[in-house]
Amino acid sequence: MTTAGDIMHRGAQWIPAHETLDRAAQLMRELNVGALPISDENERLCGILTDRDIVVGCVAVGHDPARVTAGDMAKGTPRWIEADADVGEVLREMQTHRIRRLPVIEDKRLVGMISEADLARHLSQDQIATWAGSVYARTTEG
């Protein structure tokens, strides 16, 4: 059985909710990633911040990324998966919620992230096609 822990990218790092978006952008550059899980004061997942969030949700609307925090950008209920979850559960979670990145948790601690690149490296072409069709499909909602 292939698990989330088998396909994830290890070494994911939190960005604390109180950190500013300019610091988040610097950390993304240092880590060569496009998304960071956001942690609250108890190191619990409270959101995910993407490079697109910084550009579209802050800079493009005229806000100063040195004054907006990662926590300000955290919206909705963050999704995550346990490290021992079967890859089928990973795909269902990502497809159901139409998400492209999924934090992996073990013993209530962040241990990795699963991204599109991780899926492409570890799954069959049929699995990838089904996933992409679900995640990227346009909806008629709102």
3D structure, described in words:
The chain is an alpha/beta fold and 142 residues long. It contains 7 helices and 7 strands; from the N terminus they run H-E-E-H-E-E-H-H-E-H-E-E-H-H. The protein has helices at residues 4-7, 21-31, 51-57, 70-73, 87-96, 116-122, 125-136; strands at 9-10, 15-16, 35-39, 45-50, 81-82, 102-106, 109-114. The strands form 2 sheets. A 4-stranded mixed β-sheet has the order 1-7-6-5. It has a 3-stranded mixed β-sheet with strand order 2-3-4. Helix 5 runs parallel beside helix 7. The radius of gyration is 15 Å and the shape is globular. The mean pLDDT is 90.
**Please, what is the average pLDDT?**
90
Secondary-structure element order, as H and E? HEEHEEHHEHEEHH
Q: Cα-atom Rg, whole angstroms?
A: 15 Å
Terminal CA distance reads: 38 Å
Q: What does the main sheet amount to? A: 4 strands, mixed
Report strand order across the widest sheet.
1-7-6-5
Amount of beta strand? 15-25%
Helix content: 25-40%
Structural class: alpha/beta
- How many helical stretches? 7
Characterize the overall form: globular
For the secondary structure, the number of strands is 7
- Return residue spans where pLDDT drops below 50 for at least 5 consecutive residues: none
